[in-house]
Specification:
This protein is an alpha+beta fold. 32% of the residues lie in helices and 11% in strands. It has 4 helices and 4 strands; from the N terminus they run H-E-H-E-E-H-E-H. The chain has a two-stranded antiparallel sheet. It is globular. 25% of the residues are buried.
Length: 106
């Protein structure tokens, strides 16, 4: 029930406002700047992506990247995390076409 309440509260707060594609960084945000990020206004804190890539991602109030993927194996885990995201909140803004063809880039 708590999850549904948070979803409805978020929808009510953002009514008429397009979701942001920018990383929201402040003194409390654990998100690292880089090609991979979690869209803050979209993440519903389901916790599924960090299970796929615990070495790259964590969960506080929302999912976040605490390490940017740097090897092929890490990129694969990040892609798997994006595929398991229930709300499609993981984004990639890099130039690797193999990654861009697999997940949302906007």
């Amino acid at each position: 029930m708590n999850l549904l309440r948070r979803i409805f509260d978020r929808l009510r707060r953002n009514k008429g406002t397009p979701p942001t594609t920018d990383i929201v960084l402040d003194s409390t945000s654990p998100e690292l700047e880089g090609d991979w990020y979690v869209e803050a206004d979209t993440c519903m804190s389901c916790g599924a992506p960090p299970i796929q890539a615990p070495d790259l991602m964590g969960l506080r109030d929302r999912c976040y990247f605490h390490k940017q993927p740097s090897s092929e194996a890490e990129v694969e885990r990040a892609c798997k995390a994006a595929e398991t995201s229930c709300c499609d909140a993981i984004r990639y803004r890099g130039s690797d076409e193999r990654v861009r063809s697999r997940i949302r880039t906007d």
